[in-house]
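pinned: reference chain
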Amino acid sequence: MKKALIVYGGWEGHDPKGVAEVFEDILTKENFSVENSDSLDAFLTDLSVYDLIIPVWTMGTLSWEMSKNVLSAVESGVGLAGCHGGMCDAFRDNTDWQFMTGAQWVAHPDNIINYKVNITDKTHPLTKGINDFSVASEQYYIHVDPAVKVYATTVFKSDSAPYAANGEITVPVVYTKFWGKGKIYYNSLGHDRFIFDIPEVRELMRRGFLYAAR
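pinned: its structure tokens
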């Protein structure tokens, strides 16, 4: 049986406990043994015992020791998977974390809007059989590591925002990368637990967990 660690907390606006509960349900149905922690101190423990680490922690501060322990565990082969601000707006002052995870949130220009998620790789197991779909949520504008492999995107369109001078801008929604032997999976959807009621969003996370797990 594979073992997963979910560490949740930080800014309450992203419903960390609710999202963690959804993730635990997904993983339990996939026969994972799941441990939950609402403290970053979990990152000071022996992380090599896990096959998958899932951060659900928007903002906050990660100590040097915690950061080093997580990066080392992933480099050794422990998988890392997460979503939205819970992974890529987790520790804004920690560039090592951003280097490992592959992106950093910088804006959601119009707050909650209706937008489309475009599946760009329709043959990969992460996305095969999933069609383009629409959501009403924060459209995440992220700064992205050029090393990532992108599977879904969204297009930013505006007539008045400062970035509109650049024309339509395509930004990743789902991507993977490697950190040493560890696999990284990120999905920018996940503002709160309710977005996982959308079948495509829940399925993308389920597949992402299975992909990233050692």
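why pinned: The longest strand covers residues 169-179. The CA atoms of residues 121 and 127 lie 7 Å apart.
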